[in-house]
Amino acid sequence: MIPTQDQAKQLWDKYELPEGKRRHVALVARVARMLAQQIDKVTKQQINIALLNAAALLHDIDKNADKRSGERHPDAAVRILREEGMEEVAALVKTHPLHAILDGAIAPKSWEEKLLFLADKMVKYEIMTVDKRFKLWNDERLPPSAQIVLDRSYPKVKELEREIFGIVRIFPDNLAQLASEKEPGVY
User: Fold this and answer.
1) How far is 6 from 118, CA to CA, in rounded Å?
2) What is the largest CA-CA distance in the chain?
3) What whole-number distance in Å separates Cα of residue 35 and Cα of residue 47?
């Protein structure tokens, strides 16, 4: 099942998604939809925008949820979405964490996976470039294991950014302005 936007928001309440995360996922969804529409316009690729939107709205559903032994983000989100009967959404959400781009088994491959992954890396609580997002992460003084993932993933994320923005023919710096022009309101 692919939930509607209203059904996704009901899950936000059910799983007590914090307000800041609601803003984040709504902006990720907006960026992902906008990029998908631009790719469709240029390439005529078939992108499942309903699935992409649902996954973007639910990719962090586990932020306040109880995690089982051994689960880390997004494992609990994937489990929750499967329990809710949203297997397609769960499969897409599984590919969005930063470490996924380093693992060939779960690295984003489809347009939906690539767009969710990149949109998530271009949003904190506002839309920004990959460079700015990585700078914010670097400023957090992460544990050494997380810093290694950050450092190793950066070139691959930049490569994905170049791939997508090369197709849509806009500059990453202009994304925030374009997204706000195309879709007023956050959520």
Assistant:
1) 24
2) 45
3) 10
Confidence of residue 185 (pLDDT cuts 50, 70, 90): very low
pLDDT of the residue at 170: 83
Mean pLDDT confidence for 40-51: 92
On average, the pLDDT of the chain sits at 92
Full set of structural domains in the chain with CATH: 5-182 (1.10.3210)
pLDDT tens digit string along 124-167?
Answer: 989 999 999 999 999 998 999 999 999 999 999 999 999 999 99
Give the C-alpha separation, 119 to 39, whole Å.
14
For every residue of the chain, DSSP letters joined together read: ----HHHHHHHHHHTT--HHHHHHHHHHHHHHHHHHHHHHHHH-----HHHHHHHHHHTTTTSSS---TT--TTHHHHHHHHHTT-HHHHHHHTT-SGGGGG-TTTS--SHHHHHHHHHHHTBSSSB--HHHHHHHHHHT---HHHHHHHHHHHHHHHHHHHHHHHHHT--GGGHHHHHHHHS-S--
For residue 43, the cross-strand partners are none
pTM of the model: 0.92
Closest CA to 88 of 113, 114, 61: 113
Contact between 60 and 19 under an 8 Å Cβ cutoff? The reply is no
